[in-house]
Amino acid sequence: MSDSAITYTLYIQADPDRVWQALTEPALTRRYWGVSFETDWAVGSRMDWIERGARTGDPAQVVLECVPNRRLSYTWHTFTPQWAASVGIGEELRAQLARERRTKVTYEIEPVGDTLARLTVIHDGFEPGGTLIGMCSRAWPLLASSLKTLLETGAPLPEPGHEGEQGSGGHETYER
């Protein structure tokens, strides 16, 4: 991790097609992340995030690159008051996040032999020393591990502090 980017690589016992499905299909993203995306995944298409009943959309929240089973990139989401209320984030923190520049997430998927895929998550463009990079640097390992666990065992990791529930929006890792 640098002061403006997070890179996280993991190996998953699944083929690239299955990893791609876990990144793009709402039924799967809801299971390990608690988020679903409404988009057609075409470059330039808008992405709406649906998390805990709140829809977050913005014209600048778009798909940047889409090469099925290999590479996916999009702008990170918009921090609206509706999103913050749905996930329990206070207005002061929400406003602080909204003031930081928009970031970008890229997933690179590579086959490793016949039974493994290497998934690299690159989240970049952060404000150096900003609040968002701190939150995301704690959230990405949990999210990626939950995705891996889901694909390898059929069940995601439980949400921290909510045993028995599934998925994690990542904001829970913010130390208030």
Strand content of the residues, in percent?
25-35%
Percent of residues in helical segments? 25-40%
Rg, Å, rounded: 15 Å
Structural class: alpha+beta
Strand line-up across the major sheet: 1-8-7-6-5
The parts where pLDDT drops under 50 for at least 5 residues are: 162-176
- Count of alpha/pi helices: 5
Strand/helix succession: EHHEEEEEHHEEHEE
Bulk shape: globular
- Number of distinct beta strands: 10
What oligomeric state do the depicted chains represent?
A: single chain
The rounded distance between the terminal residues' Cα atoms is 22 Å
Largest sheet: 5 strands, antiparallel
| Rounded average pLDDT | 91
Question: What's this model, at a glance?
Answer:
This protein is an alpha+beta fold.
Describe the model.
Strand 7 and strand 8 form a beta hairpin. The chain has a five-stranded antiparallel β-sheet, covered by helices on one side. It is α+β, with helices and mostly antiparallel strands and 176 residues long. The protein has five helices and ten strands, in the order E-H-H-E-E-E-E-E-H-H-E-E-H-E-E. The chain has helices at 16-24, 26-33, 81-87, 91-99, 131-153, and strands at 5-12, 35-38, 48-51, 54-56, 63-67, 71-75, 104-112, 116-124, 158-159, 162-166. The longest helix has 23 residues, at 131-153. Helix 1 crosses helix 2 (26-33) and helix 2 packs across helix 5.
